[in-house]
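Protocol step 4 of 6: record predicted structures for both targets in the notebook before any analysis. Target 1:
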Amino acid sequence: MDNDKVEGRIHGEQPEPAEQDSLLMRLVFMLIIAVMISLAQTVLGVMTLIQFVIMMFNTSQPNERLSESGTDLGIWIAKAARYQTAASNVKPWPWTDLD
């Protein structure tokens, strides 16, 4: 996967919502996203183990689809972290498109 393409997905144009959520609604979204990040970390751990086993039996060659899925998951986690830390008002998927 091209690094410029990944950078664009993380830092590219993300239209800010027309109106901001109230602090109470932001807290609700932050709690939901925190649970989703925890689940994403578990999925990442499982993907890591699977990729390692694949590489053990495939002459150190990673599974390309699994690598790309890991990149997609990492980008989602980065966008979720930006929302959690108020660096962005754009909520991650499923509230916005998964690009």
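Target 2:
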Amino acid sequence: MQPAVDAADANALYRLLEEEVVPAYYDRDASHVPRRWLAVVKESIRTVGPRFCARRMVKEYAERMYAPALAAKRPTYR
């Protein structure tokens, strides 16, 4: 069953590339600017950019890695 799913996924990907992505990239206005492609890029940055910002990554790393490591190494004083 997996080969059929892989083939369907590949076909969907190639269709998307051929019918939407590549034409948007190569379609230029009178100033040779790919307006549709830039709209796609800007929307991608707007929607997924916050998930990949450095501030969020540093905060998450500190919370998941540094804080537990610090707590585990902290000596107990009596």
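Step 5 preliminary note on target 2. The CA atoms of residues 53 and 59 lie 10 Å apart. Residues 2-73 form one domain.
Proceed to step 6 after PI sign-off.
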